Hints:
heterodimer; A: about 80 residues; mainly alpha; Non-ribosomal Peptide Synthetase Peptidyl Carrier Protein, Chain A; 3 helices; B: about 325 residues; Udp-n-acetylmuramoylalanyl-d-glutamate--2,6- Diaminopimelate Ligase, Chain: A, domain 1; UDP N-Acetylglucosamine Acyltransferase, domain 1; ten-stranded mixed sheet; eight-stranded parallel sheet; 4 helices; globular
Amino acid sequence: MLTESDVRAALRLTLDSAAPDAWDPDFDFLDGALDSLDHATFLLNLEEVHGLKVPEEDVVSLKSIRAVLEYAERAAADEGT
Amino acid sequence: MNAGAGAAGAKTMELSLADVAEVAALRIVRDGRFSTLGILSRNTEAQLCPFFDRLYVDDLRNNANLAAVITTASLVREVPNRCAVAVAEDPLTAFLDVHRHVATIDGFYWRHFDTERARDCTIDGSAFVADRNVRIGPGVVVEPNATILERCVIGAGAIIRAGAVVGAEGFAVMRHRGRPVNVPHFGGVEIDAGVEIQSGSVVVRGLFGEVTAIGADTVVGGGCRIGHGVRIGRACRIMPGATICGSTTLGERVWVAANATISNSLTIGDDAAVFLGETVTRDVPAGMAAAKGRILPKDRLLTVTAKVKQRRRSLRDPRTGRR
């Protein structure tokens, strides 16, 4: 199961910076912190390392640490049903 | 010497170590022929290479095309029996002396010819085109202040924009008599049909006999630097300010974004992409993208990036452009 620390690690890797460690879980990182290419590489990292597949239509909803965790939780639940 | 009768520009000659022994003070241990020069990590056919440090012994053994070696007395036993070998006090100095010498032999690196311009090409009066060893094909356009130096072949319909330099000297340092020197470049450039080299770009000629090659319909944006022996496939897009270092190979339809730098001797596969400002130091397989220091699936990366961009645009106030 994807954890908050996994998400922060993927963000750190994307930005090559420790700044995401200080972000509030609800901080909208699409509001200037990540550009479109950062966001895409972040999501592809989650897909590659943690197997979190994100269909194109859901991409933009994953804009905060909490949103990513909730999405991963729902995806895991859907897989289980 | 063993000279053939190839077409103008084509190299056709083989030499033996004995042919060059005097110019580089070589002691021949086992004579044999070679048809070009190079370094051990390059696998060009029938090469003469310097071998001056045990550090490179794996390259020496793994180079199946190695024909002849200049080395030291203490390293000579490492050279495979299939290779000709000569000993010099300083193999690098001797190698560079041979390099300079063979460049003066017509037909070794290049067979000389008077410059040929197709009747319907358009060359601006302020452009410089060398008097020999340049072939300019039909429909080529050479804009003001562009420079085309020796050993360049420009294919039909290519455009060399204002101020571009084709066939420039490049950068390759070796030690000669203990001092670092830039190795003179004696190779050429081949630009295929329909290529466009935009303003201020520099295409460096090959280092030894090889050419720097740009495939048909490729566009090289302004201010790019294409290093010696680079091979670029068809229909690539090299955007302004990109640097492609020596001996790197790009496949077909490769897309290199502005200010990216691709290190030397790499392979970038067909349909690969290198994103804005990337510094690439490893191969990029076909269909992949180098972005943010990583190698990712190109199509997926582009799709996701486009989605995010689209979403951002939709959140902007149409009047102010702000979110």
